[in-house]
């Protein structure tokens, strides 16, 4: 048994892996996947018979290393992380270590580092500050850091999250190569059940207990599909009557950090009621583009940008911008205060803050309870975010983005961390919102099953160069 702060526990987990066998741990959100990963790496107290036998003559380090979903960044001033907008402030990034500096602290071998950066198609990150990495780039950086100091057991928590198609294929090959060189892999796999080729066994968890342990080829036969239901008739949706013609308009927009151009000559119009997919490989500039819209990036003032028909930089405050936008991103999730309750986290969406600092109106309080009830989360209302699974935390922050009925909804990889049933329900929820209200949508995802049916326009970025076109739902798989 393993216990986690907050009371969550794993019970009756029993499995064995032999040499050359690799495990995928899967299960619904909140089933205990990350808790088990932490327990296997000695980060949680365990009672019972956990035994890991290391080969005495194996040259690899005899320990377990955990590659978590997000790497904790320490700056030159010895502070940790900072704030989520820091990525877009160039002066702040001067205090951050570069990718090369961080990797050389593990192994001072620049030739090998260059080789791995090229293998993972990120040689351009070599001199980039860690704080400027996108979520997908961050994942590949973490993997390189682990490869530079190989161990006999490597546990990876959702390594495919946030990666584009080509990066997922490359990661699959790299994991196979790591396995053949003597490292045993345990991989947490969530919503998409993308089991790497090197995996030989599957452990499925359910509510902190073992549901199934089997060889990979037998798992699909035993796995039964479920549906995460919600009652759409109970959703507190309102038709948005906010008056504007264009939610977003950009003219010849460009963003540059030092010698590197992130975005160049972007001309983009998002009309009221449009539903856009923003696509591109990891590091193409998608999140940077959205940061200019949401007001997190100071380079917005150096460009011609219109929000809700008004030019940026004409006297509006950051709060004037944010009040009309519902927003969710991997960076927001990473930096959000996990010590507040689920209720307060949702309520903070009314004020676009990371905590609740103002008194709610009765109608706002009732609206929160209606959303929690509609998505069957009312029992978690007073639970701290830190005490629930990362998937449910993300679901709470998604409600936060929806709570004020915003005229513009910006969702940057919103289904990260949701299990497949929550993902199915959330995609349907977005379609319901867009069908029943006049909400304008900008959406990012690398997975076809996460794309709502309402999406009918695409802005594709390739090294900052835009391609804009309309699509039909049946052709969307070819462009993800």
UniProtKB/TrEMBL annotation:
InterPro entries: AAA+_ATPase, ABC_transporter-like_ATP-bd, ECF_ABC_transporter_ATP-bd, P-loop_NTPase. Residues 2-232, 248-480 form the ABC transporter domain. One of its GO terms (molecular function) is ATPase-coupled transmembrane transporter activity. SUPFAM superfamilies: P-loop containing nucleoside triphosphate hydrolases. Gene3D superfamilies: P-loop containing nucleotide triphosphate hydrolases (3.40.50.300). Keywords: ATP-binding, Nucleotide-binding, Transport. This is ATP-binding cassette domain-containing protein. Coiled coil: none annotated.
